[in-house]
Amino acid sequence: MPLSFNPIKLFAGSGTTVLAANIARAYGKELGDVVISRFSDGEIQPSFNETVRGCDVFLIQSTNQPSDNLFELLLMTDAAKRASAHYITVVIPYFGMARQDRKDKPRVAIGAKLMANLITASGAHRIMTMDLHAAQIQGFFDIPVDHLDASIIFVPHIKSLNLPNLTIASPDMGGSYRARTFAKFFNAEVVICDKRRKRANEIESMSIIGDVTGRDVVLIDDICDTAGTLAKAASLIMENGANSVRAVCTHPVLSGKAYEIVANSALAELIVTDTIPLKQESEKIKVLSTADLFAKAIANVNEHASISALFNV
């Protein structure tokens, strides 16, 4: 006898409408009807224009520029809970505040933990996200977390480039594990750019651990914010004799002068996903879609199937 599943409904927050529409299309459903209203002072009020009673609801919203997008998501979750949704999965392609995952100096907040508390308190039963800045953030939640891995998207693309002398690089010591994970798919060497910061978003010095002479280097990172680290790493790699350098970053935050920095950098290209919509087009930035992966993950959650099975490259 086949399993009986509750009706599925997908809704988009206003910060992730394009990706949410692509996820819904890949899943084979239309997005649900939700209206995000604002009072004249900016106060947000979401309203579902269709019933969600007894439904398994997926709310899709990245929390880049986190204040408004996060609070909108929290209000949508609360509205779905109060409308008697059966099960609420919050789909956060880019999980903002993830860089605040610990007290690295006195008297600072742990923003990622606060986000976890707020999302859980709003009524979410499950979290689905991609490439958390620190994987241990999953432990901040007391509800299930599906942590999707963008390598399933990036690895085939890197292979398609047919780079003859591939070397994988990490732009800092903290990303060395991520770089080594990628390198295993290609049996490639790993080099690390060791950086020292004066303060957030400002680098004091950088040096390379490893040899890049004559190599085609691919830098691996999860977030590209100001692009300063990637640009400095790319310049240093080329100065040390590399044939080419490009970068792969899951989340294109790209704040401040990032687009200008990427355009003027030694990078051949910056390969990103659509977890955050680009603010402007750039000849050097290539966007790969996450819609199919999220759609498959949503289907597997609904069918009680394995999520990890999606990451066999």
How would you explain this protein's 3D organization?
This protein is an alpha/beta fold and 313 residues long. It folds into 2 domains: 163 residues, 3-Layer(aba) Sandwich (Rossmann fold), CATH 3.40.50.2020; 138 residues, Rossmann fold (3-Layer(aba) Sandwich), CATH 3.40.50. The chain contains 8 helices and 14 strands. It has a 7-stranded mixed beta sheet, sandwiched between helices. The protein is globular, with a radius of gyration of 20 Å.
SSE run: EHEEEHEHEEHEHEEEHEHEEH
Distance between the termini: 33 Å
How many domain units? Answer: 2
Q: Summarize the main sheet.
A: 7 strands, mixed
Mean pLDDT across the residues is 93
Query: What fold name goes in the CATH topology slot of the largest domain?
Result: Rossmann fold
Helix content: 25-40%
Topology:
Elements: E1 8-12, H1 17-27, E2 34-38, E3 44-48, E4 56-60, H2 66-82, E5 87-92, H3 111-122, E6 126-130, E7 145-148, H4 151-160, E8 166-170, H5 176-186, E9 189-199, E10 202-209, E11 216-224, H6 228-239, E12 244-252, H7 258-263, E13 270-273, E14 285-288, H8 291-302
Parallel strand pairs: 1-4, 4-5, 5-6, 6-7, 8-9, 8-11, 11-12, 12-13, 13-14
Antiparallel strand pairs: 2-3, 9-10
Helix pairs in contact: 1-8, 2-3
Task: Produce a short descriptive summary.
This protein has 313 residues and is α/β, with parallel strands linked by helices. Helices cover 29% and strands 27% of the residues.
Main attributes of the structure:
Rossmann fold, 313 residues, alpha/beta, seven-stranded mixed sheet, five-stranded parallel sheet, 2 domains, 8 helices
